[in-house]
Amino acid sequence: MDIVRDLMLVLHFVGLASLLGGFLVQMKSRTKRVEAAMFHGALTQLVTGLALVGIAEAGDADVNHMKVGLKLVVLVAITALVLVGRRKESVSTGVWGAIGGLTLVNVVIAVVV
Q: pLDDT (tens digit, 9 = 90+) per residue, 15-38?
């Protein structure tokens, strides 16, 4: 089971890199877009995060449900912004900034809480 957990954790980090990388790559661009990498990163984070919690619950690990719930709420907001914005030619700087900011908030929650 450790191999599956480790694989899910690596994929979770890959999803984070994809989501955050899609945001950071556009820092100097005038026109902000929701890239495919951001969409796939958000979905990867969602699926692997749920899998990690399921694996932890199935094992002997002590799961911090408050942390998991908070991270899930933030990720659902990110995913909603990405889903709405990906169909548009460009998004406002506020939407683009919210995606990046909420992604960083999720990292802070994961590390600090």
A: 999 999 999 999 999 999 999 999
CA dihedral 63, 67, 39, 24 (to 10 degrees): -120
Strands (E), 14-101: none
Q: Do 52 and 68 contact (CB within 8 A), yes or no?
A: no
Asked if 86 contacts 39 with a C-beta cutoff of 8 angstroms, the reply is yes
Q: pTM for the whole thing?
A: 0.91
Task: Measure the CA–CA gap between 101 and 48, rounded to whole angstroms.
Answer: 21
Helix (H, G, I), strand (E, B) or coil at 32: strand
pLDDT digits (tens, 9 = 90+) for 63-79: 999 999 999 999 999 99
Residues 6+ apart with CB under 8 A from 29: none
CA pair distance 31, 45, nearest whole angstrom? 25
**15 in Cβ contact with 45 (< 8 Å):** yes
Please give the angle made by the CA atoms of 50, 53 and 56, to the nearest 5 degrees: 150
